[in-house]
Structure to design on (465 residues):
């Protein structure tokens, strides 16, 4: 879900057992939103060491094989994260998926196709903090805690209904709808941190998205919706592979969009946010509930039947209601926006969201740059690129010869060095990210998420119909 309005967004991918869990318990896939402060999602750079796989020419690798690079795996179980970190967690309440072990290079997507870039894998001097836990897309068991409706819920709902008059809704109608909202103990528990924090692992995370089945079904989705994807890429300048990848990571191409009633999920988190949670996000969800009710009125949707993730994210791209109202577009030209039933609307909306958040048409996600032996000092863990090419060059970074697919304009943009930490091996993979990478992090404020999207897109480019 876009993160400005999408505070909690897990990315989903079902395994055989997880399929059942996903369909019965619901999911929160990534979620497009844009509100939580970037500081909430900052990464703590992992400790540095010596470069193990520093990369050579594009598509090759020098040094020892290391985790955190291109590869495929079919594992699907997912960890979770609460109050995620940019370098490896996912949004609180969002699903964390694994990665793949590989050797030396990592694929990236560009408007002209996919390219393999060298990456640096560095053993850390000390372990980076483990990512907190959040519900996975397969909705693992919720923490064993007691949750209950707030004793002040009734007064809070009455005040909320009265305030909705300022948004053009009849308070009596809002009150009547809220009376039919049901408290969900499952939703309340799923936004709590897991009892045992999971260990951050970029290779494990990547494997769960860049894996054979998701690649195959992504190619099938691309073939089925090829004309719309081509029109959208031409209009917005966002590659079809990136659009397909985001939808694939979020909802497995629309197969798993969540089966929580959105009204129940948002009402629970707006008025009964669990006091055990480390941060009170109820104001965020009250705003999303308000946006949801306005959205239903504007679009003629039934607020009592619409289903989504346990955080209230909706449709193939898992937009939170506020993001849907601000960034969703009518892709099929029928005069309505339906992110659940119209893949064309979902495709166009993902592209529009990225453009609105800084996507640069014609530019790559990762840059063809060889980093110095110890890239750690160049990592700031933020979600906004801050480095210039002269700064990186002065620090020892060098441009790698490319095949000319990319224009040299990327050297004029700000860029950033990202760290992808693997706790089990205490190593870190580093890449140089372009503004387009940071546009993807506005969809889900996680380095792991954005890199998985780019790597899956690269694999889809190789097999595109």
């Amino acid at each position: 879900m876009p993160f400005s309005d999408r505070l909690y967004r897990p990315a989903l991918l079902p395994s055989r057992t997880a399929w059942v869990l996903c369909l019965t318990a619901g999911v929160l896939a990534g979620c497009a939103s844009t509100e939580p402060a970037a500081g909430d999602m900052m990464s703590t750079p992992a400790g540095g060491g010596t470069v193990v796989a520093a990369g050579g020419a594009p598509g090759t690798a020098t040094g020892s094989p290391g985790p955190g690079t291109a590869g495929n795996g079919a594992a699907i179980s997912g960890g979770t994260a609460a109050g995620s970190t940019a370098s490896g967690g996912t949004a609180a309440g969002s699903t964390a998926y694994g990665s793949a072990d590989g050797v030396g290079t990592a694929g990236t997507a560009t408007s002209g196709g996919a390219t393999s870039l060298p990456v640096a894998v560095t053993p850390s001097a000390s372990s980076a903090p483990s990512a907190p836990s959040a519900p996975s897309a397969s909705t693992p068991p919720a923490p064993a805690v007691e949750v209950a409706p707030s004793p002040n819920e009734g007064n809070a709902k009455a005040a909320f209904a009265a305030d909705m008059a300022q948004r053009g809704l009849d308070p009596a109608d809002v009150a009547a709808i809220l009376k039919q909202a049901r408290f969900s103990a499952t939703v309340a528990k799923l936004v709590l941190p897991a009892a045992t924090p999971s260990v951050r692992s970029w290779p494990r995370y990547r494997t769960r998205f860049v894996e054979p089945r998701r690649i195959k079904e992504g190619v099938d989705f691309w073939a089925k919706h090829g004309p719309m994807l081509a029109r959208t890429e031409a209009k917005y300048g966002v590659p079809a592979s990136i659009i397909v990848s985001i939808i694939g990571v979020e909802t497995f191409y629309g197969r798993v969009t969540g089966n929580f009633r959105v009204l129940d999920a948002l009402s629970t988190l707006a008025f009964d946010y669990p006091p055990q949670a480390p941060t009170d996000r109820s104001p965020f969800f009250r705003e999303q509930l308000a946006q949801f009710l306005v959205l239903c009125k504007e679009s003629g949707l039934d607020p009592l039947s619409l289903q989504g993730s346990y955080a209230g994210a909706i449709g193939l791209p898992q937009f939170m209601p506020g993001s849907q109202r601000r960034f969703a577009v009518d892709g099929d030209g029928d005069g309505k926006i339906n992110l659940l039933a119209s893949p064309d609307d979902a495709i166009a909306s993902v592209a529009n969201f990225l453009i609105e958040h800084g996507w640069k048409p014609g530019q790559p996600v990762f840059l063809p740059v060889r980093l110095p032996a110890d890239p750690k000092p160049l990592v700031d863990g933020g979600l906004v690129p801050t480095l210039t090419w002269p700064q990186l060059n002065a620090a020892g970074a060098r441009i790698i010869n490319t095949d000319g697919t990319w224009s040299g304009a990327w050297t004029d943009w700000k860029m950033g060095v990202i760290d992808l930490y693997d706790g089990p091996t205490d190593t870190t993979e580093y890449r140089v990210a372009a503004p387009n990478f940071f546009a993807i992090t506005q969809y889900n404020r996680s380095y792991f998420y954005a890199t998985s999207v780019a790597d899956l897109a690269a694999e889809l480019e190789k097999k595109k119909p």
